């Protein structure tokens, strides 16, 4: 047990899906998993374990932002022994080639966050996805005919940028596809502790065209992402 998690040893499966939103964790447990049971509810940051296609898998909310995710992920790896961590999030679009509802596989995650920057001194560390998980997700998405893009994500500490789209500066011109708030910390912790991580996001709003999907559709449009992530999570 930890200050943030009252699950006992063995309550989590080795593979976990990580949504930011606790209600998304509940929705995944209720709508996708068999025999799901609640394993954590401290701070209402809900965690569940069940099975998907007969294989054990967990889902644990991380809250919003890299400091919050870093607490849950640090403990899932070091206290509970998890080995495969797949974030299932939402992101904003920084590139008009990506449409709302498309999936973004975060091959890498750029960041403005001190939580990553301050660890590497003179170096700009490049947080990257586990190649095996990334390849598996891309192959499965392609086989299922899902619209997806693999590339560089921005994990920002700022949701409401004071300068709006201009605040992202040169990143869109350098191929950065979308913006969310957690992947870089997830990838950095996975690298540090030698486990596998991937971030898959559904693009819910485009910062250029201002197109967005509403709260109700948000839930249903996340179905493809969740089933894809579960298939990848239980594969090995
Ligand atoms: O939908 P989730 O997984 O929370 O992800 C995105 O949504 C939140 C901001 O609205 C941030 O956590 C961002 O990363
Ligand atoms: O972090 C996020 C998530 C969704 N949409 C955004 O614009 N930013």
UniProtKB/TrEMBL annotation:
GO MF annotations in UniProt: helicase activity; purine-nucleoside phosphorylase activity
Active-site residues from the entry: 205 (proton donor)
Domain (Nucleoside phosphorylase): residue spans on this chain: 16-232
Domain of life: Bacteria
Keywords: ATP-binding, Glycosyltransferase, Helicase, Hydrolase, Nucleotide-binding, Transferase
Binding site residues for phosphate: 20, 24, 43, 87-90
Site (Important for catalytic activity): 218
Pfam family, any one: PNP_UDP_1
Binding-site residues for a purine D-ribonucleoside, renumbered to this chain: 4, 180-182, 204-205
Reaction(s) catalysed by this chain's protein: a purine D-ribonucleoside + phosphate = a purine nucleobase + alpha-D-ribose 1-phosphate; a purine 2'-deoxy-D-ribonucleoside + phosphate = a purine nucleobase + 2-deoxy-alpha-D-ribose 1-phosphate; uridine + phosphate = alpha-D-ribose 1-phosphate + uracil
UniProt-listed Enzyme Commission number(s): 2.4.2.1
SUPFAM superfamilies linked: Purine and uridine phosphorylases
Top enzyme class: transferase
CDD domains, alphabetized: PNP_EcPNPI-like
Function field: Catalyzes the reversible phosphorolytic breakdown of the N-glycosidic bond in the beta-(deoxy)ribonucleoside molecules, with the formation of the corresponding free purine bases and pentose-1-phosphate.
Subunit structure: Homohexamer; trimer of homodimers.
The family this protein is said to belong to: Belongs to the PNP/UDP phosphorylase family.
Protein name: Purine nucleoside phosphorylase DeoD-type
Taxonomic source organism: Devosia oryziradicis
